Amino acid sequence: MRADEAARKRLAIPSNSPEWMFLSECGFDAEEHDDGLHPDARVPMDLPYNQFLRSQGFPGDNPWHTAANSVIDADGELCSGWLLRSAPFPAVVPDELSETAYMTDRAIEFIRRAGDDRWCLHLSYIKPHWPYVVSAPYHDMYAGEEMPAPNRTEAELQTTHPVIRALQRSRIGRAMSRSETRQLVLPTYLGLVKQIDDHLGRLFSELEHLGRLDDTLVVFTSDHGEYMGDHWMGEKDWINEEVVRVPMIVVDPRSQADDTRGTTSHELVEAIDLLPTFVEALGGENETRKQWLEGESLIPVLHGERGTRREFVVCEADWGFLEMANHLGGTKEPRRRRATMLRNERFKYVLSEIGSNLLYDLDEDPHEQHDRFGDPNLGSVAADLHEQLFEWFRSRHHDTTFSDDMINATAAPGGTAKRGIMIGYWDEEELSAGMRGELY
Description:
four-stranded antiparallel sheet; two-stranded antiparallel ribbon; alpha+beta; single chain; Arylsulfatase, C-terminal domain; globular; 15 helices
């Protein structure tokens, strides 16, 4: 989501007004906005984290970069964390001043201010993420450990699929596919994960201290995974399991969830299921909001009543903004640089706007090494999944300003006539009957 700055100027909405902040923050009340990149044109003021670092003795225009995301290398020189060679060295800032610590502190401040009131907090950590830099002691906590081998085969490099080939040949794909890069960066990445764990521990301890751990629903999840050389790719921009199958840990403190507590579920779940879950947990009614909410509440799953009603999950990949698009030659249509995945319990079907579609049998091929789209034995499977995906496309919510009750009331016999739209009636008698709903 990107704010419409041209419309703001045309409508003369002050840039720092509550109205504009509400619109530009997608409806959230922003406690702190840090997208993990600075300077950021979408943040009209100096980054608060930068102000904080300066107050802690780290000077400069952008200590987010020069302190939090830079290192002192083996030669004693300041080295940007954007450079992969920086990964083994500790960040200039100590752990207690890192981005992760800072955001945890801000969350704790918010919860303390809330007191006994109800609150909802979206705490979005930047790390683990590029730049791949972490403070001591996390920078070498996993150094020297044997890292898992990447999920890839030499045969994958022979792919003729233009998008996959472009992802492999992009700068990030080539960089992360080098074994020495993975061995250098992966321990740092794991250190960033451990850092998150420890600071979440601080957050939960504070919830317990405040007496809010027993009445707070906690969800921990991620927006995507990380290739780190799997399938000869880097970053996140395709649809393999390493990227799209992310963990989701839910803690419902109520006794109704005791039977499922500590268990693992393999139900098909999407991120859009979280909002209806929160609505139901707070005693709201999702049925009256279903013109807006396309997910389903997970409360029945948490309380052991039933599984989800999903037959499949969907993921969309939009790589039109990426450098790898330049590896596709004449493909100049940015709106076609996308793919849509439908995955059920066994199969994954990928509709690619560029190149052929893909089909994986995850029972027989969980590592997604063999595209079966052209397999005549699975032709009917691909056709069925294709139709399911297009039914999903067709059923997306459009009339979001009208509830189902409003639509049905208008469509009911006499509904439009009562609104003064009296089309097709012959005379007053027929109109009167129509107004009473007797004609259809």
